[in-house]
Amino acid sequence: EVQLVESGGGLVQPGGSLRLSCAASGFTFSDYDMHWVRQTPDEGLEWVSAIGTAGDTYYLDSVKGRFTISRENPQSSLSLQMNSLRAEDTAVYYCARRLESYGHDAFDVWGPGTVVTVSS
Amino acid sequence: DIQMTQSPSSLSASVGDRVTITCRASQTISSYLNWYQQKPGKAPKLLIYAAYKLQSGVPSRFSGSGSGRDFTLIINTLQPEDFATYYCQQSHSSPRTFGGGTKVEIK
């Protein structure tokens, strides 16, 4: 079964750090671009970061310089290191697999999400 | 960034109804449009990609259409398990952006 499972969420003070992980199984992890998407009641769904199969990385402007995405292909693992956290980073964070088909792409597999709360 | 606007933000419908949800992009995105379904406490689920292509395993009562700026998701013969929130998402440009969602509630 194709599956993604996030971990590492929790309560952190503003300015603090947190590292999210995503364990993949049931597919060849190294063949896929992987993404982080977050969701809040107010802002809805928001793409955060991506890492390509070659290790190229991409970030939402508001997290550039604070978040770092990485992958460990032998362990089928994706990570998001989040530093200098702000209240507006509070959200459910999902890891998602990118489906690519004839030049179109979508997020075809999602984890259940992990909750990050930034508050004093 | 491309803004995605969905309408309505919510609707009430009965089992067996035909439901139509629209999504408009702030600029032309050709057919680079995806639709997701999300139930409370769960992750989004991909229903349709490239505007009209049904994701594997998704019932055929779901269909998508449109190109350019305007897109439509239709649910034919609404089933009890279809009561959820639906989101559109553009895959034309980075960053990928989502619509605000349409909540389909039981009438």
Explain how this protein is built.
The complex is a heterodimer of chains A (120) and B (107). With 120 residues, chain A is an all-beta fold. Chain A contains no helices and 11 strands. In chain A, the strands form 2 sheets. In chain A, strands 2, 4, 5, 6, 9, 10 and 11 form a 7-stranded mixed sheet that branches. A 4-stranded antiparallel sheet of chain A has the order 1-3-8-7, with no helix packed on it. Chain A is globular. The termini of chain A are far apart. Chain B contains no helices and 11 strands. In chain B, strand 7 and strand 8 form a beta hairpin. By secondary structure, chain B is an all-beta fold. Chain B is 0% helix and 50% strand. At the A-B interface, strand 5, strand 9 and strand 10 of A face strand 5 and strand 10 of B.
Tags for this model:
heterodimer; A: 120 residues; mainly beta; globular; B: 107 residues; four-stranded antiparallel beta sheet; 11 strands
